[in-house]
Amino acid sequence: MATEFSFPDSAAKAAAAKPEFEPEKMSLSMGPSHPSTHGVLRLQMELDGEILTKCDPVIGYLHRGDEKIAENMTYNQFVPYTDRLDYIAPLANNMAYAIAVEKLAKLEVPARCQAIRVLTAEMARISSHLLGLGAFGIDTGAWTVFMYSFEEREKLYKLFEELTGARFTTSYSRIGGLQRDVPEGWTGRVNAFCDQFLPILEETLSLLTRNKIFMDRTVGVGVISKADAIAYGLTGPNLRGSGVGLDLRKDKPYSGYEQYEFDVPVGTKGDSYDRYLVRGEEMRQSVRIIKQVIAKFPGGDWYAKDARRIFAPPKDKILTSMEELIQNFMLVTEGPQMPAGEVYFEAENPKGILGFYVVSKGGGVPWRLKIRAPSFCNLSILPKICVGCLVSDVVAILGSLDFVMGECDR
Amino acid sequence: MADFYFNLPLWFRSLVQGLAVIAVIFPIAGMCSMAERKVSAWLQGRPGPNRALPFWFAWVPVVGPLLQRLGIFHVMADGGKMLFKEDSLPGHVNKFYFILAPIIAMMPALTTVTTVPFGAYFDVAGNVIPLGLARVDIGLLAVFAVSSLGVYSLILAGWASNSKYPFLGGVRASAQLISYELAMTLSVIPVFLWINAPGQPGTMSLARAVEFQSQPGLLGGAWFIFIMPVAALIFLVSLFAETNRHPFDMAEGEADLVGGFHTEYGAFKWGLFFVAEYSHMLIGSGVFTLLFLGGWNPLPWVTLSQLAVWLHVAQLPLVVGVLSIAIFLAKVLALIFFFMWVRWTVPRFRYDQVMEIGWKKLLPLAIANLIAYAIGIAVLQK
User: Fold this and answer.
1) Which end of chain A is less enclosed by CB atoms within 10 A, N or C?
2) What pTM was computed for the model?
3) A111-140 and A90-104 helices cross at what angle (nearest 10)?
4) Which domain does B6 fall in, by range?
5) Residue B158, number of CB atoms within 10 A of its CB
6) Which chain A residues touch B248 with a CB distance below 8 Å?
7) Residue A229: pLDDT above 60?
8) DSSP code of A47?
9) Sign (positive/negative) of CA torsion B110, B116, B122, B123?
């Protein structure tokens, strides 16, 4: 959907001179290397003075062919690739992918595994929204918000590291379970983090929420109407900011979300300020969910024990028992065995709805894997809402849409 | 010593004074850049630059690590880097104007310093003699006239870069600087209406403004920030805009314009812009201190001469001079800290909002303020 641009050279323009005065327009390429395009998004803009008359997002600078790569490896081998979709919230991606494949295998994971997944996904949501908040702050010129939010993210990363062994690319889920159980005392530390996090969150948000300059920059900027938000397939906080209360955690609960009480914040005007408010409130709700998960943390198995052709047996069994050794060997060489069929599963990720469409012809390798990336859909509305804005507004809009190019370009 | 100095030929004295300006402004501006990094770090809850420690200083037991923690040596490292790294010249620029722009940026900054008095001492008769490099009776007018030339450097840099982001930055800068100059100039007129009694030779001298704030009495000893707070506010806000400081740093606006007018600059040429910005801040803060914060008077209603008498140093011009410079510098640096505090706290305005504040809010307010004080002063002096 390329937009047509008109930048005739002066000779051609003189030849086609119209009687009435027509201002000359300037083309401006923002990105792929630009401080405010959050990665490698490129906006091809047409400017009349400083007002945008056209805006065309050019994507694909971070295309790695993730979907094709998935066809060449077993299901578990693809988990690290899901880290790199929305690399701000890898734990949520891991979970969405694992649930999609488990749905294909019609496998039900134990309650403890579900609870851990919900816990990590909500922590990832906080981490992602914190970064979105901080980056939005930088885009509007408030650097200190970024530093405040990064300090909290650092604490989250410490917890992630303790849980998964990696700070950034966690690769925590496995088909039918998890990489490992939660360490001793870890949930207590998560609880402690939540307790100290809430006042800091309020302080950080208070730097912006009633700030006159920030409100001038965001209220009424980048308004997305309810109808537009639905028509362009927006999801996540961007959709809820426009007043549509769609949240799959409530509407199509998965992984035991139905047990937890939380509210879905919804905006009224659909401008950048509303999207900011929605993200702030979602962080509070995530803390609520985390506290509930920890309060009724189920015991028992943390992986599907009966799924012998999907999840690897414990390591000590592999080293001592013949049968388990063979089972592990089959899993490593051929991958978790899936029935033929196809499945689509979507999860409410921090950035929006992340969907995995998996087609299997049996065996340990997907025949086709399609990823529905929320950032990709969310960015598609840019040509619509950026026209008529100033260049500085574009930056604020990009910040409020909170996208990740790793997911958009895949 | 002083006699010997004043017997030297004028050109030699001018040369020495010129070099003194450079030797003072450059280090202070450098330290300001350091302070900026440190202040931002403190505001954001991080340690800030604390690594650089030259080997020839590392052996000093307590002072060395302390200065390292304070990041003092990063100034030298940064300055040295800017001087010695490759001074690249992009192929697509207009070379003459591209090189000219940073030079022009420095010129008004260094010129205006000479007209700003920065201290005072008492002569034998007990009169207050202001310290300054050049005694210019038009004082403030000279500062305004010369410092407004600084806008040329931004426009030149933006145009000569032959690149779109600098171009937008240059255009924004020129519009912004010109529009805030009006409000700024109008805001200080009440001060001089107050100072200059009708029928006497008038003055625009900054030293006279300080003298006026050191009179006895309730109104005489009050700083002008108490007498005319609105004017002070307008002047301060315009100062932010004039020095291109956050939240008015449209010309740079790194979020949307990458680096604004200096996107294509690097190495020492960029460093000159940097130093020029801090010099403008220093001079602006200096003028604000002289006009509204009582100059070298330590506290409102407490004048420098009173302090000198209390400390029994009134007969020592050198001590009084140093004392007054210290008081003045302390106020200026406090203002610089305020600049930094604001920068790291609030978001940035949008370009059209900046223009709106300038034309639709500050300018009418400045005019109303001027008229109100003109009437008030006329009534009072009747």
Assistant:
1) N
2) 0.86
3) 140
4) 1-84
5) 29
6) none
7) yes
8) E
9) positive
Q: Between the ranges A14-23, A197-206, B91-100, where is the mean pLDDT highest?
A: A197-206
Contacts of B74 (CB under 8 A, 6+ apart): B34, B37, B49, B51, B52
Backbone angles phi, psi at B44, to 5 degrees: -100, 5
Considering the domain architecture, whether residues B120 and B69 belong to the same structural domain is answered as: no
Q: Contact A143/B164, CB-based, under 8 Å?
A: no
Tell me which residues of chain B have a C-beta less than 8 Å from any C-beta of chain A.
40, 43-46, 164-165, 168, 246-247, 253-258, 344-353
B140-173 per-position pLDDT tens digit: 888 888 888 888 888 888 888 888 888 888 888 8
Q: Tell me if B347 sits within 8 A of B147, measured CB to CB.
A: no
Closest CA of chain A from B291, distance in Å? 28
Helices B140-147, B164-195: axis angle to 10 degrees equals 170
User: Which tens digit of pLDDT belongs to each residue from B261-284?
Assistant: 888 888 888 888 888 888 888 888
* Strand residue runs (E) in A120-170: none
- pLDDT bin (cut points 50, 70, 90) of residue B110 is confident
Structural domains counted in chain B: 2
**Which member of B45, B246, B351 has the closest CB to residue A390?**
B351
User: What ipTM does this complex have?
Assistant: 0.83
Q: Are the CB atoms for A205 and B340 separated by under 8 Å?
A: no
Q: Domain residues of chain A, as ranges?
A: 69-387+397-407
Q: Is CATH 1.10.645.10 correct for A69-387+397-407? A: yes
Show residues of chain A in contact with B246, CB under 8 Å: 141
Identity of the residue in B165, B247, B352 whose CB atom sits nearest the CB atom of A213: B247
Q: Do B221 and B215 meet the contact criterion of CB atoms below 8 Å apart?
A: yes
* Cα–Cα distance for residue pair B148/B183, rounded to 1 Å: 13
Q: The tokens of B94 are what?
A: 């207009």
